[in-house]
Specification:
Keywords: Cell membrane, Membrane, Transmembrane, Transmembrane helix, Transport
Transmembrane segments: 77-102, 114-138, 171-193, 214-240, 277-301
Subcellular location: Cell membrane
Strand content: under 5%
Radius of gyration: 25 Å
Protein name: Carbohydrate ABC transporter membrane protein 1 (CUT1 family)
Distance between the termini: 27 Å
Number of strands: 0
Family: Belongs to the binding-protein-dependent transport system permease family.
Order of helices and strands: HHHHHHHHHHHHHH
Helix content: 55-70%
CATH architecture of the largest domain: Orthogonal Bundle
């Protein structure tokens, strides 16, 4: 930069100054709401007392972590969190790719817009509304029957008391998640599809490829970078349960806890019922550390085996 003319250097400095000022609100936001609260992580290593405050409470080492991992709930909660998030991630990615390819193959412009808006709409539906809709489908407004059980009865099949049977709920929650997030994921993949050069498809047509073959051999492979980014982001949050949706649907129904109780709902319930700030902070810190390790591992694996889609 010292070799540049003085006028050019001043112009570059002015540009850098304006760009820094433009970024200042975002930097301040993250400093105040993301980095400053990290000081509260010390609660995970303390026997927290509200009257003494965060820094006045006595230290208790790793007792909060021991309390959680020695409880009978730890293994169940960790397995549920991991299993549900793996199901959610795999199902929503698959649904997003499938819907995006299907939308891309539609030729009616107005029908395509209506279809895209329709499948994207569930993303904006409140978890409370989803819980009410699911209750109508599974148990009915009065707590008995429900549209699903009515359909089963119509085919001569036995009905199910859905809200007392924990077994089917991982799959029910996965269907809800796909319904809620499938359209959102499809928009991301559809944006990636629109960036594929038309020359590639024209070459496929010249070679005699059908629309299905081009979707399978051209579109799908070129979506790998987008899928890789979404996969890495999803892996980073694989120990974070979808608290809003799960708690709105399950609530405090202890009968369903064996297959639906995740870390986030357990922390909320513990904080609400026993007010144990130290243990809940320890669990939150554990989530963050595991999430960081998983993201770093996923990025290293991606860089090693698929450099063309790596984020590093």
């Amino acid at each position: 930069m010292t070799d540049l003319p003085a006028g050019r250097r001043r112009a570059m400095l002015r540009t850098s100054l304006w760009l820094s000022l433009l970024a200042l609100p975002a930097v301040a936001f993250f400093l105040v709401f993301s980095y400053a609260p990290m000081a509260g992580l010390v609660v995970a290593f303390k026997e927290f007392d509200i009257s003494r405050g965060i820094f006045g409470s006595p230290w208790n080492g790793l007792d909060n972590f021991r309390y959680f991992f020695s409880s009978g709930d730890a293994q169940r909660i960790l397995v549920n969190t991991l299993l549900l998030n793996v199901l959610f991630l795999a199902a929503t990615l698959a649904a997003g790719v499938t819907l995006a390819i299907m939308l891309n193959e539609l030729r009616g412009r107005y029908f395509k817009r209506v279809a895209q808006s329709t499948i994207f709409f569930p993303y904006f539906v409140s978890p409370v509304v989803i819980a009410i809709m699911l209750q109508v489908l599974l148990s009915g407004p009065a707590g008995s029957g429900g549209a699903v059980n009515d359909a089963l009865s119509g085919f001569g099949l036995p009905t199910v008391s859905w809200y007392t049977e924990p077994g089917p709920w991982p799959w029910i929650l996965t269907v809800v998640k796909v319904w809620q997030m499938g359209g959102y994921m499809s928009v991301i993949f559809l944006a990636a599809i629109t960036s594929i050069p038309e020359d590639v498809y024209e070459a496929g047509q010249i070679d005699g490829a059908s629309r299905a073959q081009m979707a399978l051999r051209i579109t799908l492979p070129l979506l790998k970078p987008t899928a890789a980014v979404l996969l890495v982001l999803g892996v980073g949050r694989i120990f974070y349960g979808d608290f809003g949706t799960i708690y709105a649907i399950i609530g405090d129904n202890g009968t369903l806890f064996p297959t639906t109780d995740v870390i986030d709902t357990y922390v909320f319930r513990s904080l609400r019922q026993i007010g144990d700030f130290g243990t809940t902070a320890a669990i939150g810190l554990f989530q963050s550390v595991v999430g960081f390790v998983l993201v770093a591992t996923a990025l290293l694996i991606q860089r090693r085996y698929s450099k063309e889609t790596s984020l590093l």
